[in-house]
Design a protein that fits this description.
alpha/beta, 21% helix, six-stranded parallel sheet, 8 helices, binds NADPH dihydro-nicotinamide-adenine-dinucleotide phosphate
């Protein structure tokens, strides 16, 4: 069993040296008497790289909604796996599952197993790639759905802006907005990504924020009448520019602030245009996906037909091999991923 551990807490941008792939050790391919009753042994197939894993690498002092990783321990995160042995009556060997596992070949998931793992009923034979359970059919998918439909409460004809728009969450928000009859514009960090937004995901317009000397002016150009809904993925200078361009009674769903995750405390961006929240009577709401798990069945039922008939596209960026997982995760913070970043560590 090979495992990737966090070596020590991270300050600033994470480097590959902050993680280590430990050489293979023998694992029994069955649960043993050391495993708590009700455990499940899984073979990990796909690992998800998600931005929230970065705050978990910091010393646990800041306000956070999830516990920090423990240096020396295996990194945990979302993944897709196959059950090898099970002491939980709801899961049998051969079942496919998605949820929280470890960055290792095999993981023992301790009870309550159903708090961590969900059985996949629409797997490879259901016409849907298994890897989608790290993305559109997993945590990022529900995040996009809840953030857009529940928090933003869109109406047809409204204008929507999405940042980090080509990523795991953003590409879906854009497509959900188009389906809801909104006019949607996205920003991303390269010409290739901007092209993808316009041609593959059906954004009405898009721009490369790295090439805009004045973000507020770029938004004014794309939204002459202003923005009704902003789906916030990045924070920092983009949030300030958006605040200046919001319409009265606009809504901002604060999903993530990736531009701030690697900055040390004194370096974080101040929000300068917060007065716009009052002047424009804006509603600004943060949310986290785990609070909305109960909506997953409704979301899955809604989105599956769109995946199957091609109405919704999903672009993935697949790294190969457990040894490449640290590099793939770090790439998120430099915009190296094109689409949802995941790692394939074993064949389906
Ligand atoms: P993505 O697939 O979008 O990958 C991250 C992208 O962020 C990069 O590709 C890069 O794209 C962009 N980025 C990186 N650094 C910066 C920066 N300094 N300024 C602007 N953009 C940057 O990730 P996800 O879709 O998985 O996540 C998007 C956001 O949603 C994150 O903030 C994440 O924390 C949040 N999130 C929140 C959840 C919740 O429950 N609230 C759940 C899931 C995600 P580019 O090339 O365009 O710069």
């Amino acid at each position: 069993n090979r495992r990737v551990i966090l070596k020590d807490y991270v300050e600033g941008y994470p480097q590959e040296e902050h993680m280590e792939l430990l050489p293979a050790t023998e694992v029994p391919l069955r649960l043993t008497s050391d495993d708590p009753p009700g455990s499940v042994l899984v073979r990990n197939l796909y690992l998800s790289c998600d931005p929230y894993m970065r705050p978990k690498m910091s010393r646990p002092v800041r306000a956070s909604y999830t516990a920090a990783f423990v240096p020396g321990s295996v990194i945990t995160g979302y993944g897709v796996a196959r059950v090898v042995d099970s002491a939980d009556p709801r899961l049998s060997p051969g079942d496919l599952v998605w949820g929280i596992t470890g960055w290792e070949d095999y993981s023992v998931v301790k009870p309550p197993v159903t708090a961590f793992l969900s059985k996949i009923s629409h797997g490879a034979d259901g016409g849907v790639p298994l890897s989608y359970y790290t993305g559109i059919l997993g945590m990022p998918g529900l995040t996009a759905y809840v953030g857009f439909h529940e928090i933003c409460a869109p109406k047809a004809g409204e204008t929507v802006f999405v940042s980090a728009a080509s990523g795991a969450v953003g590409q879906l928000v854009g497509q959900f907005a188009r389906l809801a009859g909104c006019r949607v514009v996205g920003s991303a960090g390269s010409a290739e990504k901007v092209e993808l937004l316009k041609t593959k995901f059906g954004f009405h317009d898009a721009f490369n924020y790295k090439e805009e000397p004045d973000l507020a002016a770029a938004l004014a150009r794309c939204f002459p009448e202003g923005i009704d809904i902003y789906f916030e993925n990045v924070g920092g200078a983009m949030l300030d520019a958006v605040l200046l361009n919001m319409r009265v009674h606009g809504r901002i769903a604060v999903c993530g602030l990736i531009s701030q995750y690697n900055l040390k405390d004194g370096e974080k961006d101040a929000v300068r245009n917060l007065f716009a929240v009052i002047a424009k009577r804006l509603k600004l709401q943060g949310f986290i996906e785990p609070d909305h798990k109960h909506l997953y069945p409704k979301y899955e039922e809604w989105v599956l037909p769109y995946i199957r008939d091609g109405t919704i596209a999903y672009v993935e960026d697949v790294a190969e091999g457990l040894e490449n997982a640290p590099k793939a995760l770090i790439g998120l913070f430099h915009g190296r991923n094109v689409g949802k970043q995941l790692v394939r560590i074993a064949a389906d």
